[in-house]
């Protein structure tokens, strides 16, 4: 994970001021790459406590093909709450009246999430993010890409076409309404001569402080799950970035992060009896030897 900290330092030092959709402002660079050997341990940042429970639930939610925040909310994971909420405010003409992350906004957000929890009809209507990751992974114009790629890895491991894409140009506008166009856009698997499974992700846009630690752990887990069901060993996770940025309201947090020293990586164990990608449950994941520094709170740019 030193590579992540080096990238954080690089963007902090060399990132160039750039305005962005959220109005927050960033330091940004274009085109970088991180790699990690998955056999060396589970790539979960140790210089701050990372919310792994949320990462696991989010990944299972993608794999289920689910695009409604109801599943996440019911499992007490709030990482996608702000986007359907903002869409809800917009429909009421309130999105420009409430200051994001202000007291009123926060209060209304809690009310909104309470309604998602209690009222199924409300959740159906307002919890839906549109045709985001889960939809594209499981039903991209009728193709179940996850099912296809697993079968292809098993039967044609030398293939150079082991690709899953979340970027569906015809549906981007719809994704942007209540959710976001996919940031982790496309990934490719690779099976080496010695039966190791690697995965490379292209991430078009990367919130380096908040989102990237989630993205690394999530794809490392996905690669472990696919390796297990395809009976392969673990290779590398290669993370390729387009616009990598640090939001201007994360700079203090980045300095804290960079002042800390990484510890040995934790270990992740998957329940070995699971042989079907679609049958993993939350209880099938066990993290041990994780001794991180304290969490570092930061507001998410909406
Ligand atoms: N600006 C932005 N950055 C992102 O990383 C991001 C988005 N937007 N939009 C969609 C998803 C949602 N993701 C998120 C959203 C919030 C956190 C976050 O706040 N993480 C906290 C812990 C949150 C908690 O404990 O509930 C952290 O400290 O990592 C992380 C990833 C990643 N994505
Ligand atoms: O998994 C994710 C999802 C989102 N992000 C970040 C990257 C950007 O900061 C925003 C998305 O804004 P766009 O204007 O659509 O690029 O969310 C991430 O890092 N990881």
Q: What is the highest CATH level, the class of the largest domain?
A: Alpha Beta
Ligand identities: 5,10-methenyl-6,7,8-trihydrofolic acid, ligand LAUPNLSC
Q: C-alpha Rg, in Å?
A: 19 Å
The number of helical segments is: 11
CATH fold topology of the largest domain: Thymidylate Synthase, Chain A
Oligomer status? single chain
Pathway: Pyrimidine metabolism; dTTP biosynthesis
Subunit structure: Homodimer.
Binding site for dUMP: 21, 160-161, 204-207, 215, 245-247
Domain Thymidylate synthase/dCMP hydroxymethylase: 2-302
Structure summary:
Residues 2-302 form the Thymidylate synthase/dCMP hydroxymethylase domain. The protein has 302 residues and is an alpha+beta fold. It is 38% helix and 20% strand.
Would you spell out the secondary-structure blueprint of this structure?
Elements (H helix, E strand, L loop, with lengths): L1 H13 L1 E3 L7 E12 L14 H13 L5 H5 L7 H10 L11 H16 L1 H7 L6 H6 L6 H11 L7 E3 L6 H7 L5 E8 L4 E12 L3 H19 L3 E15 L3 H8 L8 E4 L14 E4 L14
Parallel strand pairs: 5-6
Antiparallel strand pairs: 1-2, 2-6, 3-4, 4-5, 7-8
The protein binds 5,10-methenyl-6,7,8-trihydrofolic acid and ligand LAUPNLSC.
The site of 5,10-methenyl-6,7,8-trihydrofolic acid (MHF) has 13 residues, from helix 10.
Pathway: Pyrimidine metabolism; dTTP biosynthesis
Keywords: Cytoplasm, Methyltransferase, Nucleotide biosynthesis, Transferase
GO biological process, one term: methylation
């Amino acid at each position: 994970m030193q590579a992540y900290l080096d990238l954080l330092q690089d963007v902090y030092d060399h990132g160039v001021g750039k305005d962005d959709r959220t109005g927050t402002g960033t330091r940004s660079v274009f085109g970088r790459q991180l790699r990690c050997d998955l056999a060396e341990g589970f790539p979960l940042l140790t210089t701050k406590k990372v919310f792994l429970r949320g990462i696991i639930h989010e990944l299972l939610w993608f794999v289920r093909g689910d695009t409604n925040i109801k599943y996440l909310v019911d499992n007490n994971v709030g990482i996608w709450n702000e986007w359907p909420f903002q869409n809800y405010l917009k429909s009421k003409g309130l999105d420009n009246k409430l200051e994001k992350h202000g007291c009123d906004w926060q209060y209304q957000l809690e009310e909104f999430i309470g309604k998602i929890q209690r009222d199924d009809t409300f959740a159906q209507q307002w919890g839906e993010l549109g045709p985001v990751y889960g939809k594209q992974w499981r039903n991209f114009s009728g193709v179940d890409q996850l099912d296809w790629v697993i079968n292809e890895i098993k039967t044609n491991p030398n293939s150079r076409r082991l690709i899953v894409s979340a970027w569906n140009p015809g549906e981007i506008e719809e994704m942007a309404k209540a959710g976001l166009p996919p940031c982790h856009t496309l990934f490719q698997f690779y099976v080496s001569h010695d039966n190791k499974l690697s995965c490379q992700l292209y991430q078009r846009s990367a919130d380096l402080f908040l989102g990237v630690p989630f993205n690394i752990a999530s794809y490392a887990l996905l690669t472990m799950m696919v390796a297990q069901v395809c009976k392969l060993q673990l290779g590398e996770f290669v993370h390729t970035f387009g616009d990598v940025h640090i939001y201007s309201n994360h700079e203090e947090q980045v300095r804290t992060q960079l002042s800390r020293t990484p510890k040995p990586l934790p270990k992740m164990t998957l329940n070995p009896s699971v042989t079907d990608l679609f049958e993993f449950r939350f209880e099938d994941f066990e993290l041990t030897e994780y001794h991180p520094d304290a969490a570092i709170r930061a507001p998410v740019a909406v």
